[in-house]
Design goal:
Low-confidence stretches: none
Shape: globular
Largest sheet: 5 strands, mixed
Radius of gyration: 21 Å
Helix content: 25-40%
Mean pLDDT: 89
Order of helices and strands: EEEHHHEHHEEHEHEEEEHEHE
Number of helices: 9
Length: 291
């Protein structure tokens, strides 16, 4: 049986620090709660923004299509070596931050309760967009627990009310293949078609009306999207490009998605870039899982 560890960061931000950080471990009906704190780390914000700028610049220099929309005011000439250096600095700063003395009590206590071969679900609970974006998997802690997986949640959430429905014996997937200019989503389609225990309905570059109809009038277990997407307003809002002329935010699909969740939609999977806004908006609808 897997173990669950939830880190909760409250009452602060990277510029002020977090005076109250808790880690709760659930296993075999036992609960362990450990408390600590994290200092201010404004350099993480600066490094992340720099990493994002260089990521876009390197991709454009290599001739790749633009994936992340960010301001490029301070980027003029960049090399892959510059990008690699920022990546290393970001990883180093994350580990320095999490190795601070005020947080070591949390990590040391957890290590006494965990074994290297444990299957562990590690959840970061926070409402701060930048903390959702940080590459937490670069934390050295994950090197010692190879079966640990990472997830993110907001502070406020609730279990959805789901209507009972008859089982067909197969997982029902609604697969949206959206705007794919410059990217290859043929493999997504191939893999979905090869699933023997699933019944997949494909919408290829659908209109909003076609997508609404499927969400409102049919039962789905999984919603899958492949194509272009973006996060707007500093990661607070996500949008998907359903075809070459139309994009939709989660709020525009809110009522249809809430109905689908009530009818059993359990997982949303987005194989698209810069999707933190999508994940945050879907979490507000209390969908159980977003990948």
């Amino acid at each position: 049986m897997s173990k669950l560890v939830v880190f909760t960061l409250l009452g602060g931000d990277l510029n002020q620090g977090f005076p109250a950080v808790t880690a709760q471990l659930w296993h075999h009906n036992q609960i362990f709660k450990i408390t600590g704190s994290l200092p201010a780390a404004p350099e993480l914000d600066r490094l992340y923004q720099r990493w994002q700028l260089l990521y876009e610049a390197v991709h454009q220099r290599l001739g790749n299509s633009q994936r992340i929309k960010v301001c490029r005011d301070d980027i003029t000439n960049v090399s892959v070596n510059d990008f690699d250096k920022v990546c290393q600095n970001l990883q180093s700063n994350i580990n320095t931050w999490l190795k601070c003395e005020s947080f070591q009590n949390v990590e040391r206590r957890l290590r006494t309760l965990l074994n290297r071969d444990d299957e562990i679900r590690i959840i970061i609970e926070t409402d701060i967009v930048l903390l959702h974006r940080l590459p937490w998997y670069l934390w050295d802690f994950f090197d010692d627990y190879p079966k640990a997986e990472l997830g993110l949640i907001n502070h406020e959430y609730a279990s959805p009310q789901v209507l009972r429905k008859s089982s067909t014996g197969k997982v029902k997937i609604l697969a949206i293949l959206g705007n794919s200019v410059g990217i290859d989503i043929d493999k997504d389609s191939y893999l979905l078609k090869s699933l023997t225990d699933a019944q997949t309905t494909f919408l290829v570059e659908p209109t909003r009306k076609q997508l609404d109809e499927q969400l409102w009038n049919h039962d789905w277990d999984i919603l899958f999207f492949a194509g272009h997407s973006a996060s707007l307003t500093d990661g607070e809002t996500g949008e998907i490009y359903i075809n070459q002329t139309e994009s939709l935010t989660v709020s525009q699909l809110r009522n249809a998605l809430k109905t689908a969740i009530t009818r059993g939609l359990n997982i949303a999977i987005f194989n698209s870039c810069d999707g933190i806004g999508l994940a945050r908006n879907l979490a507000e609808l209390n969908i159980p899982h977003t990948i």
